[in-house]
Putative tick transposon
Amino acid sequence: IMYADDTCIILTARNMTELEASANIELDKIACWFLENKLTVNARKTKNFIFHSPQNKICADKVELLINNCLLEQTNSFKYLGVIFDKNMHWQEQISAVYTKIAPGCYALLQTHNYINIDILLILYFVLIVICYIVSKVGDVHKKHILTLLEHYRNVQLE
């Protein structure tokens, strides 16, 4: 392992000044830990994200967070472990991404509804969701494991 992928820090504070100071202290500690453990932080890919209630009008754009003396880019949304978070936790981007991903499968199922029993269609629907979820989470799994899963899926269909 060379990179510190998928590391997430969650902090809370009473105000933005306190949050900025606390976050920079934690980032310094983490940078030291990564260095001691021979991990690399890619500051260009590291994001600064502040979420809050829409009613809480905070001035988060002035926050300067640094890691290894590099200013972290602030973003209004980010994807973490397959889930898209936005600053107000509204989930519109996540819902849109899920819809885009499942639309072709839903269309295919819709095209077969006159030829396949509804109970079978429901089983296919839920099995495909599980397979797509697993593949999206473990996309780098060796091809033979995915083929084993698909072969099992085909055998179940034929029974």
